[in-house]
C-alpha cells in the first residue's frame, strides 16, 4: 500500500524479547513429519509438482501441507506461478513494517503456536476454534490464484486451504447477519509496527455475507504445498482473488458476523482511496493512479510489458453476479 502520512513514534521491542520461535517450531515439525515419512510422500503427490519445478528457490523449509486439486470453478489458473522466493520476500504486512522487504526480515518474531480463531457475533454456534481443529474441518485443496495488489503489481500463488463457507456453515449465521468482519492479530510484543500510527490496529477487513459464502473465498493455511510462512500470514488468512490484495487479511484471530458494514483498517486510514468492496476494476482508478494495468512480479527488466488488468482480476464469470445492479464506481 502507499500511504500519504509519515509514520513516526514506532515502539520497537528490544531484540532480547524476541524469540524466533515460529521458525524453529516449523523446522521441528518438518523433522517429525520426515521421520514418519509423511512430508516426502505428501510433496511427491502434490498436484503442483510442476509448479515446484518452476520455482527458483524451492520451499522445503516448513511443514508440508498438501492439498488436492480444487474442483471449484476458476480456482486453478494455468498461468506461470510466481517464484516462491519473490512471494515470500516482497510482501505487505504492516504489522512488521511498511517496506516490502520488512515482513520477510521481521516476521520471524510472530508466534503461531498455540493459535485459535474465535467465530462469534450473530451466529447460533459461536466457537473458538483451535488451529488444529480448523485444519481438520474440511479437506485441504490447492488453488492457484492471481493476487492483484492495489499498488499495481500482481503474482500467481498456489494456496492451500478450503472455502470459508465450510466454516460459516458450521457457525450457523442468524438471518440478521449481513456482513463478516475479519480481525487479525495485533500483538505489540511480537509485531514491531503494531502501536505505530501507520494504521489503526488491529488490521480489520470485511465482506458482505454473500461474498464470504462464495466458493472462491479461501481460508488459507498454506502455499506451495507447505504451511504459510509467517510473512504471508501464518498460520491462517483469507485469500480473495477477485479483490485487491489488502482485503485478504493475514494471521486471523477473529471472524465476527454483524448486521453493519465493518469499518476496515484501510477505509479508516483513507476512506476516499480504499472502499469497502475493493473489487479489482480496471475502469475505476485509484484517486492517485490508474488501475488499468499491472506489473507481474518476476517479469521485470527493460522489455517487460505491463499487463492489462482484468475485471474482477479475471474472475468475472464466477463473481460478477454478486454485484448485479450495483454502481461499481460508487461502491468501489
Ligand atoms: N493483513 C494484515 N494483517 N496486515 C497487512 O498489512 N496487507 C494486505 C494483505 N493482508 C496486510 C494484510 C495487503 S496490502 C496485501 S497486498 C496482501 O496481504 C499481501 O499478501 P502476500 O504478502 O501474501 O502477497
Name of the top-level CATH class: Alpha Beta
Give the helix proportion (percent range): 10-25%
Unreliable stretches (pLDDT < 50, length at least 5) are 5-56
Backbone CA Rg: 19 Å
The counted number of beta strands is: 13
Q: Name the CATH superfamily classification.
A: Oxidoreductase, molybdopterin-binding domain
Query: How much of the residues is beta strand, in percent?
Result: 15-25%
SS-based structural class?
alpha+beta
Bound molecules: ligand MTE
Shape: globular
What is the first-to-last residue Cα distance?
Answer: 16 Å
Q: How is the biggest beta sheet arranged?
A: 8 strands, mixed
Look at the structure and give the mean pLDDT.
87
Which fold name is given in CATH as the topology?
Sulfite Oxidase, Chain A, domain 2
Q: Which CATH-level-2 architecture?
A: Alpha-Beta Complex
Order of helices and strands: HHHEHHEEHEEHEEHEEEEHEEH
Structure description:
Strands 1, 4, 5, 8, 9, 10, 12 and 13 form an eight-stranded mixed β-sheet that branches. The protein has a five-stranded mixed β-sheet with strand order 3-2-11-6-7. The chain has helices spanning 21-36, 38-45, 49-54, 84-89, 102-106, 131-137, 164-171, 209-212, 265-269, 316-319, and strands spanning 68-69, 116-121, 127-130, 141-148, 153-163, 179-184, 204-208, 218-223, 226-227, 237-239, 252-258, 293-296, 307-308. The protein has a single domain (15-323), classed as Oxidoreductase, molybdopterin-binding domain (Sulfite Oxidase, Chain A, domain 2, Alpha-Beta Complex), CATH 3.90.420. It is globular, with a radius of gyration of 19 Å. The longest helix is centred in the first third of the chain and has 16 residues, at 21-36. By secondary structure, it is an alpha+beta fold. Helix content is 21%, strand content 20%. The structure holds ligand MTE. Residues 1, 91-95, 147, 149, 184, 203, 232-233, 245-246, 248-251 line the site of ligand MTE. Ligand MTE is lined by residues 1, 91-95, 147, 149, 184, 203, 232-233, 245-246, 248-251.
